[in-house]
Amino acid sequence: MPGPKGNAVIGQSGGPTAVINRSFIGAIMEARKHEEIVEFYGARHGVQGMLRNEYVPLFEQPNFVLSQISQTPAAALGSIRHKPTKEECNQIFDNFKKMNVRYFFYIGGNDSSETAYLINSFAAQEGYDLRVVHIPKTIDNDLLVTDHCPGFGSAARYVAAVFIGDNEDNRALKGVKINVVMGRNAGFLTASSLLAKQYPKDGPHLVYMPEMSFDLDQFLKDVDRTFKEHGRALVAVSEGINRQGIYNLKNGEKPEYISKWLNSFVNLNLPKKYLPKEASKVVEVDSHGNVSLSGTGMMGDILSIIVKSSLNISRVRADTLGYPQRSFPLSVSELDAQEAYRVGVDAVIAAVQDNFDEGSLAIKRVDEEGVYQIETFVTPLQSVQKQTKSFPKEWITDDGRIDERKFREYVNPLVGDLPITGRFVKAIF
Amino acid sequence: MPGPKGNAVIGQSGGPTAVINRSFIGAIMEARKHEEIVEFYGARHGVQGMLRNEYVPLFEQPNFVLSQISQTPAAALGSIRHKPTKEECNQIFDNFKKMNVRYFFYIGGNDSSETAYLINSFAAQEGYDLRVVHIPKTIDNDLLVTDHCPGFGSAARYVAAVFIGDNEDNRALKGVKINVVMGRNAGFLTASSLLAKQYPKDGPHLVYMPEMSFDLDQFLKDVDRTFKEHGRALVAVSEGINRQGIYNLKNGEKPEYISKWLNSFVNLNLPKKYLPKEASKVVEVDSHGNVSLSGTGMMGDILSIIVKSSLNISRVRADTLGYPQRSFPLSVSELDAQEAYRVGVDAVIAAVQDNFDEGSLAIKRVDEEGVYQIETFVTPLQSVQKQTKSFPKEWITDDGRIDERKFREYVNPLVGDLPITGRFVKAIF
After folding, report:
1. Please, which pLDDT band fits residue A153 given cuts at 50, 70 and 90?
2. Which of A266, A416, B261, B330 is the most exposed place for a label (fewest CB within 10 A)?
3. What confidence category does residue B386 fall into, taking pLDDT thresholds of 50, 70 and 90?
4. Domains of chain B in sequence order
């Protein structure tokens, strides 16, 4: 069956990236070319807009507006963290029917593909021709099937550039510097810090990914050894470091996050006036009036205090790289931006094809004679939902280090050229 | 007297910037043209290298090396935080005499100009013709006399770009976002967050500078009001916010930093094995085994917990912008880079002039018909040491806000063009 004539809906979900709007605009520009798609509606804040029927009409947006939006970080339609229930997905499908929606594009991570799948399954039950395409985006690069995710390249470029600058800073004013990098269950972004290394003694000297087990005592030994060897240490730590290591988790076992454990050492004894007036879901307060911490924000600071305290090193600093990793507008990878646009375009092309039902756009690498090249293809929604991808074990050496050559081969084209740092000749230091 | 024939020494001091190496290389390139300067030595880690006679010979560095170094963030010679004693300055002068050093260039903030002044005063006592030029750099922009400091423009560009991305992120996933910005006693960098505002409802919605008194209860009221008005709040907070406000300090009074006060709510109850084995200067441990916190790293996190707890808002996040403000290599302001180079060049030109003694290079704005233009001049070292500059009071409105028009007029040329963000037309949200 050719694509039915009807309307289309697109939404954005989950944590924004620097290039998610490229996919969004790519889809609009392509959809305009297909007469099967009568009107194209942008759902405000993902499923929330689909439940409340809050839409932006997209086809009449002037091109200069679309062009500017495509270069704007984060999600122009608004995003959402909520994963809808089955009932909500059914409601969304009902709303779609009333609007004669025949095409649904959802840009997001693996949860979004599950949402898309659920909505499509209600359509399938009724034999309603709804075509559903999930368009991948994550900075964590943790989606299954696809070679890499749009959004990752720009985030990795930001991380690599931070470490390039910080490596110089750490050379200039010696000490220990710990940078906490995003990626709760996948080490791709943290590993990207390694791209900063341009000379033999450059940092990051130590890299801790969530895939590997983290032991604080071993960490301290590593930092101590590095500091003694180089007079400094630049350290990359994933926000998701955990006791077991994702590689070693048994079926159904949950990682014990180091951030949670470190937070448990902290008592935050706020004055009463700053405690919630009534029982609150937002913060937990114990019987002593201590606020329980959650999240990873303090992990870098606590680690740096432990390094200071245990190793008696005076200059120890930590930065948590934070949101600029996903939204900094001046370090977008050109290739990442192009590919993000392309998956938006290709999602629409796929959706209008004969007999298309559902799927997630994916990228395959088809390098020719060593020249980077990709193709896109469609993989069933179920193949990318529920689980996520870890840093490949094949890129870990027998002694548990990242095989930098293999990883660079994969990541270099995604990140693009990075600033080159200078060194004196007759290298005196 | 024309410049004497002899050697030159240059050093870099204090916190690095993204363009401090431009000044360094500018000085080398110019010095090569003046036969009065026989050899040019770069001191490793500022005064430390001058005390230990650790130098890099600079004239023979190939141009491509110098060119790459000029584009590398942080201090290629190494930097230092130590402010030398009078005795050490005397020792440095003695070392200079032995090396026939006649020209001394020191790139740094106001402490460095004091060091330069001290060294020069020993030369003056002996009637030794030493010519000393302080070359300004700070990201805080807090040096007296000069219109602005090389290094500030690039840091401000980074801060503005972070807020541009974060404003979009905060629009996409509503909530309260607090960003802690560098500048312990001067609000220039924090105020630069305002450059992110491109549309009427854009953030930052609230900006807290060290010049103004900070009251936590007023802060909470401000955030509450903003969140109710916009459904979100993007907040810029200087790391140096304090109870009194720099503007209101009485002679000799020290600011009571909010970071220190907030840290006092935190008990960090580390396991014994992570406490120092013996009395340590590096961390303070109280009788209960609690580690005392110092620094500003946790301020953002503690503020965000207080906002959550007091205002019962679930989505509250904080980032401390950290070292990328001073070393991120992909957001250098082109004008800042050019001016940093120029002050290095002009420092050498000044030093070799007839009867020159000492001074700090400074920038004067001499716009013509509204077109940005500068001149440099030399101001006595004593005029820039000891004290620092605050955000000008003339740019504060009667109701205590930043006069954005006046500040933008000053800062826009320094920062350069920023990414433009897109908005749907028929603005639906």
Report:
1. very high
2. B261
3. confident
4. 6-150+330-383 (3.40.50.450), 155-327+392-410 (3.40.50.460)
Q: Does A244 touch chain B (CB under 8 A)?
A: no
Q: Please name the residue that has the structure tokens 């790519």.
A: A26
Is A61's CB within 8 Å of B425's CB?
Answer: yes
Is residue A427 predicted with pLDDT exceeding 70? no
CA distances (Å), origin A149, targets A144, A211, A331, A341, A393: 9, 19, 17, 12, 18
Contacts with B, A 294-323, CB within 8 Å: 297-298, 300-302, 304-306, 308-310, 312-314, 317-323
B245 CB-near residues (< 8 Å, 6+ apart): B210, B211, B212, B213, B214, B255
d(CA A407, CA A404): 5
Q: Report the residue from B70, B283, B429 with minimal CB separation from A305.
A: B283
Q: How far apart are CA B380 and CA B55, in angstroms?
A: 27
Among the partner residues A276, A309, A420, nearest to B275 by beta-carbon distance: A309
Q: Mean pLDDT throughout A153-169?
A: 98
Chain A from 198 to 217: CB within 8 A of any B CB:
216
Q: Is B279 within 8 Å of chain A by CB?
A: no
CB B8 within 8 A of CB B31: yes
Say what percent of chain B tops pLDDT 70: 99
Closest CA relative to residue B28, chosen from B12, B39, B18, B15: B39
Neighbours of A225 (CB within 10 A): 13
- B contacts of A326 (beta carbons < 8 Å): 165, 169
Over residues A303-320, the mean pLDDT reads 94
Q: Cβ separation of A169 and B297 shorter than 8 Å?
A: no
Per-residue pLDDT of A139-151, as tens digits, reads 999 999 999 999 9
User: B252-261 long-range contacts, Cβ below 8 Å, gap at least 24?
Assistant: B255/B185, B255/B210, B257/B296, B258/B214, B258/B216, B258/B299, B259/B295, B259/B296, B259/B298, B259/B299, B260/B294
Tens digits of residue pLDDT in B203-235: 999 999 999 999 999 999 999 999 999 999 999
> A223: closest CA among A305, A278, A145?
A305
Q: Is residue A222 within a helix (H) or strand (E), and if so which, with residue range? A: helix A216-230
In chain B, residues with a C-beta closer than 8 Å to the C-beta of A425 are 61-62, 65
The answer for B 102-131 residues in CB contact with A (under 8 A) is none
Q: Rounded to an integer, what distance in angstroms lies between the CA atom of residue B302 and that of residue A268?
A: 8
The predicted structure's pLDDT at residue A371:
94
Tally C-beta pairs within 8 A across A and B: 290
Q: Any chain B CB within 8 A of the CB of A59?
A: no
pTM, 2 dp: 0.96
Report angle CA A121, A122, A124 to the nearest 5 degrees: 60
- pLDDT value of residue A355: 94
Query: Quick one: pLDDT band at residue A347, thresholds 50, 70, 90?
Result: very high
DSSP B76-91: TT----PPPPHHHHHH
Given an 8 Å threshold on Cβ–Cβ distance, is B419 in contact with A71? Answer: yes
**Interatomic CA distance for residues A257 and A245, integer angstroms:** 9
Indicate the length of chain B as a whole number: 429
